[in-house]
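Aim 2 progress update. The chain analyzed this quarter is reproduced below.
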Amino acid sequence: MPKIRNLKNDQDIKGNEKLVGTDTDTGFTFNFPISAIKTYIDRDANTETVALKTDGGIIKENNELLLSTNIQKYRKTFTASEMLAFNGGTKVKIIDAPGANKVIVPVTQYFFMDFNSVAYNFSQSLSLTYGDSTNAFGTTYFNDMLNHNADRGQLSSATGGVFGPFINEAVYLGMQSGSVTQGDSPVTFLVTYYILDLS
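Predicted structure tokens:
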């Protein structure tokens, strides 16, 4: 049997031409006419009961999306004045509400402080919350990290959690009630997340 890499490419595909593949019902190798593949895509692919998995988690079942693999990203470099604006428990919306019957699910969180000359004096950690609530979730950006007098970074998965449905809730970054009155370093925050559709 010739090696695939030695075969010529056919740029003029016809419906009566065939591909070789494995039948999932029998495990046997069959020829699949191009015309039959087109019929499947046009008619059956959107109605067939399927279960796709990745990393042990079901992505689709019965053609219903349970988990999106479309990872999205929020990234912003906060200036020193924007960091000082967190004083007194101010929160900043970083991810808009996703819409009806949808929940934002953070995956990873990262921050990097490019130290300038004056250390911050955060009395509390910055954290993420659903809505403008008092319940933090995920990994907090510890004040002893932000208050350091050298470059600092922290990468972590979104561990921990709070109770509640949090459907169609935006995500905020901030302190609960703490203070910060000094510091002059820019801080870059990066959050990766996906949208879970519960409808």
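The longest helix spans residues 34-44. Helices lie at 34-44, 80-84, 143-146. These observations will guide the mutagenesis experiments scheduled for the next reporting period.
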